[in-house]
Design goal:
- Helix content is 65%, strand content 8%.
- It folds into four domains: 145 residues, no CATH class; 101 residues, Serine Threonine Protein Phosphatase 5, Tetratricopeptide repeat (Alpha Horseshoe), CATH 1.25.40; 90 residues, no CATH class; 64 residues, no CATH class.
- The longest helix has 31 residues.
- It starts with a helix and ends in a 7-residue tail after the last strand.
- The radius of gyration is 62 Å and the shape is rod-shaped.
- The strands form two sheets. The chain has a four-stranded antiparallel beta sheet, with no helix packed on it. A three-stranded mixed beta sheet has the order 4-1-7, with no helix packed on it.
Length: 483
């Protein structure tokens, strides 16, 4: 019992039946005043039962309250029993009134009031045995009502749940309200009343969804079913229908996305296919058809990438840009190591790159060739390269240019040296010429250093550069500066 109810029961003043001689334990005016307040309350209750209750319940037959002298057995002890029973009855009634028993306790509540009213009349006639009997009967009704509270609550909840399942909204609301009258904060009754209160709106959304389904407007049906579940998340028909219609929309959209994807794949439109497959995968993750199509798309993209690299490499080969072609073939092999065009193309591109680098070694610095070893190596290179293919004009140009350099470097140039007959002349990397006044010899194009020496004189050095086709004027070599 809660604190408010306990307070009301505890503070209930001991009431006396009508006609009872007041025997207070104290003669104080305070005790007398409370006795009269209690008596007045009891009389008011009796009047209410007499005038109001007959219209609500079946009245007790008048034969139960005969107007006759009290029997000899109605002693003071019986009177006290009747009074104590009345006090217990009034306390229990006060507590049940706090629990709103009048709203949920029929028929026991009215039957108890009727028997208490009959007991009041017996007591007024000093028929204490009959009064005690009827007070006890009234108390029994209330005690039975109090004991049956949980059963009445369960019955109301069961009836409410059954009515709600049958969409009998009015009955469901009434029964849930009855349950809440017994236990105002009962969780199931509170939830049930809320669901019953929204049921008409839920059914309206369900009807709207079903009509939309009939018209094949799946999106409108989905929206209405979703609204119904938002109004009542526990309404299973709405949640089941929402799942069903959502699955239908998903299947429809998935089929459309896959159709677009396969059509794009057949047309080689990898971009459109990828977009459609991404949508299909979002709708049905892990679908086998999506995985197969994605594998096909990856293969197409791989092949498209290889084809693009093949075209680019072919362009570089046509331009004899072998270094760029080499890089493109390597990229293709990184995508597919078994790509035959790339492996064969890479081999040829690397060979041609190396060959061009050898020619460029001499052509970029022609002076290299004016030494015996480089000149010999250049000759071997020309012999190995032979003639360039018709589709490699750059290589042909380099072969021609190097051949001209080698030819020019192989034709001696006549050089005339003049001296004084006493200066010894030496040409580095050629040999000692000795002393002479004039000496003529042939030298291959190149760079030479001529040194003249004479005892007692400072050496002289002369540098000459011989190039193909050029004429070299006579050169004077003699020592003139004494030491």
């Amino acid at each position: 019992m809660d604190a408010r109810r306990q307070s009301r029961v505890t503070d209930t003043t001991t009431l006396q039946p009508p006609g009872q001689t007041h025997t207070a334990t104290s003669g104080s005016p305070e005790n007398s005043r409370w006795w009269w307040i209690a008596l007045a309350g009891l009389l008011l209750l009796g009047l209410a039962v007499i005038f109001a209750l007959p219209g609500l319940v079946e009245p007790v037959p008048e034969a139960t309250v005969p107007a006759q002298p009290p029997p000899a057995g109605d002693t003071a002890a019986v009177r006290d029993t009747a009074q104590q029973t009345l006090q217990t009855y009034l306390q229990l009634r006060a507590r049940l009134e706090l629990d709103n028993a009048g709203a949920w306790g029929e028929p026991d509540w009215s039957a108890a009031a009727a028997r208490a009213s009959a007991a009041d009349r017996y007591f007024a006639q000093r028929q204490f045995t009959a009064a005690a009997r009827d007070y006890q009967a009234a108390l029994d009704h209330l005690q039975q009502l109090d004991a049956n509270r949980s059963g009445i609550l369960a019955t109301a909840l069961e009836a409410a749940t059954r009515a709600l399942s049958a969409n009998d909204v009015d009955t469901a609301i009434a029964q849930f309200e009855a349950a809440l009258a017994i236990e105002p904060e009962h969780p199931a009754a509170t939830r049930g009343l809320a669901r019953a209160s929204s049921r008409r709106a839920v059914l309206e959304q369900m009807n709207r969804a079903q009509a939309a389904e009939t018209n094949s407007d799946l999106e409108a049906a989905q929206a209405a079913y979703r609204q119904a579940t938002q109004l009542d998340a526990a309404y299973e028909p709405a949640s089941v229908a929402l799942q069903r219609i959502t699955e239908q929309i998903n299947a429809r959209d998935f089929s459309a996305a896959m159709t677009r994807a396969l059509t794009a794949l057949d047309a080689g439109q990898t971009g459109a296919a990828g977009k459609a497959l991404a949508e299909a995968s979002r709708l049905q993750p892990g679908n086998t058809a999506v995985r197969d199509a994605q594998q096909r798309l990856r293969g197409m993209r791989t092949q498209a990438g290889l084809d693009r690299l093949r075209r680019q490499a072919s362009g570089k080969v046509a331009a004899e840009d072998w270094q760029a072609a080499t890089e493109l073939y390597r990229k293709a092999l990184a995508i597919d190591a078994s790509a035959g065009f790339a492996s064969e193309g890479l081999r040829r591109a690397e060979e041609r790159s190396a060959l061009h680098a050898q020619f460029d070694h001499y052509l970029d610095t022609p002076a290299r060739i004016y030494s015996a070893v480089p000149l010999a190596n250049a000759g071997k290179l020309l012999a190995a390269a032979s003639e360039a293919p018709p589709d490699e004009p750059r290589l042909a140009g380099k072969i021609t240019a190097l051949r001209e350099l080698v030819t020019g470097a192989s034709v001696p140039i006549t050089v005339t040296l003049n001296s004084d007959g006493v200066t010894s002349v030496v040409i580095h990397r050629v040999g000692r010429l000795g002393q002479f006044n004039s000496h003529q010899l042939e030298l291959l194009p190149g760079d030479y250093t001529i040194v003249g020496s004479r005892p007692g004189y400072r050496d002289v050095r002369k540098a000459i550069t011989l190039r193909p086709g050029m004429s070299q004027p006579p050169l004077l070599v003699r020592c003139e500066e004494e030491i």
